[in-house]
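User: I'm preparing a small set of examples for a lab meeting where we compare how different chains pack in three dimensions. I only have the primary sequence for this one, and I'd like the structure in token form so I can line it up with the others. Please keep the answer compact; I'll paste it straight into my notes.
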Amino acid sequence: MPSANPMTRYPTVLKPYGRALVELATAREEVLCLSGDLTRQCEIDLFQGAFPSRFIHAGMAEANMIGLAGALARRGHMPFVHTFGVFATRRPLDQIVNAIAYPNLPVRLIGFMPGLSSPGGPSHQAIEDVALMRAIPNMTVVDVADATEIGQAVPAIADVPGPVYLRLKRGEIPLLFGQTHRFSLDRAQILREGGAAAIVTNGMIVASALAAADIMSTHGLAVAVVNAPVVKPIDRRTVAAVARTVGAVVTAENHSIVGGLGSAVAEVLAEEGVGVRLRRLGIQDTFAEGARRAPFLFKKYGLGVQDIIDAVWSLAGPSTPPPIAPVPESERGEYAPV
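Assistant: Understood. Below is the structure token output for the 338-residue chain.
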């Protein structure tokens, strides 16, 4: 479990996904790798070097790449398709539905640079990709938090019988969890215990949620943190069980509040009859903007550590002002919560 030190700075690693895919392909000959003209950016230059005969450069033609992947899957291959999240989901949506999801084929869509992690503005920010993929029958949707989960998720999704969408941060990947951490396709993980409120989160926001919970703990408010990397099918049992023990639930995601993790949790609470206050943190049904630094966008659009503290405190804290999160500082090779 990550350190309880508020605003922990985590070590980072490069290309954990690329290494995990090469390891999987070494054991599984049916694994193929498709690139949408973003080979180095999606870490699959490692695969290209190790297995050039199993690497397909599809170019900037994502709809065609999805159709090709579907055809390859019908012939017994397991295609892993790579591009940025917005190009993996929004652009070829019709092909995903008809060529992959409807026939329930084992194609793995790997979308890098999700949500506000892209500085490129609305054309490159996948803020609705989880909502789109959640709405498609047969699709499994995964948003992992760190390099440990990436290394465990890659072989895990290989055995899912139908299509999978895996959402991944690009660049330096934090190492939040130790090797005792276990990624699961059907179980969320309770990373912090607490009875006042619960933060349900995943992906890039996990580090910030942990920092927020640890800061509030030092001020007398015990807050649970639930990491739910699998958004579909969500672990209803854990989400409902934790919600029944707290006074409020806050969801925090690097995605629109419409149709993503917050919506999935709201559905669970309503259908399980859990009467608890809910606040959804995420992109508030708006387009963002471009910026040179992603942390600026996370803070501007309400996804920083302080925003999580403020939301939880307003629902479950005392009447005193919420604690102030320190400004994180990180050196080269380190990752600090936003």
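A couple of notes for your slides: The longest helix spans residues 62-74. The chain has two domains: 10-174, 189-321.

User: Perfect, thanks.
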